[in-house]
Write a structure and sequence with these properties.
Elements (H helix, E strand, L loop, with lengths): L2 E6 L6 H13 L4 E6 L13 H12 L5 E3 L2 H4 L6 H9 L5 E6 L12 H7 L1 E5 L11 E3 L7 H7 L10 H11 L5
Parallel strand pairs: 1-2, 1-4, 2-3, 4-5, 5-6
Helix pairs in contact: 4-5
Length: 181
């Protein structure tokens, strides 16, 4: 079985993430996409929403799509997990692995932990973002959603949130991002 791994903070998950998953299912010769929310992104200092809540949101979003699995692998580790560890875990279970990243990750990709080994284990798939150049060594996913999780946390634009979890996401961020006064 061939899969695509799509990891990230998903803090919060939004329509752009869903578009990436749907485009991957349409474009790649895969059996399923495995969405892997990070406990904590190794490149960030923390998250806003707790890992279990982000996991629950993702499961609610994709529950009706039999070709999408939401994995708690990284969350169960209770620490930041490097991509090589996640790839090796799923590589022991599946055949070919496509690894989906956003184009904004390309600049630092070669600095990722054990990049050379990781590069030998996966086929890279890059979701377009902000007119960032994508080289010929990558499979390109054309995604036209211009949504940023950080901006979304501040603005809480409901039209950019998945309907199934929009109220929960808005309520959570409104309650945690309020001024203490």
């Amino acid at each position: 079985m061939d899969i695509a791994l799509y990891g990230g903070s998903f803090d919060p998950p939004h329509l752009g993430h869903i578009t990436v998953v749907n485009e991957a299912l349409k474009t790649l010769d895969i059996d399923k996409v495995i969405v892997v929310p990070a406990f904590v992104n190794p490149f960030k200092t923390g998250t806003h929403a707790p890992a279990e809540l982000r996991l629950a949101w993702l499961k609610a979003i994709f529950k009706t799509n039999s070709r999408v699995e939401v994995s708690d692998f990284e969350i169960r580790q209770n620490r930041a997990v490097k991509s090589i560890e996640t790839v090796k875990h799923f590589g022991a279970l599946y055949g070919k692995i496509y690894f989906i990243i956003g184009a904004d990750n390309l600049a630092l990709l070669k600095k990722w932990h054990r990049y050379e080994e990781l590069n030998s284990l996966v086929t890279w798939v890059v979701a377009t973002r902000d007119d960032i150049e994508i080289g010929p060594d990558f499979i390109r996913l054309n995604v036209e959603q211009k949504i940023s999780s950080s901006t979304l946390r501040e603005t809480l634009q409901e039209q950019k949130l998945p309907t199934s979890v929009a109220i929960s996401i808005k309520d959570y961020y409104k309650s945690t991002l309020k001024d203490p006064e």
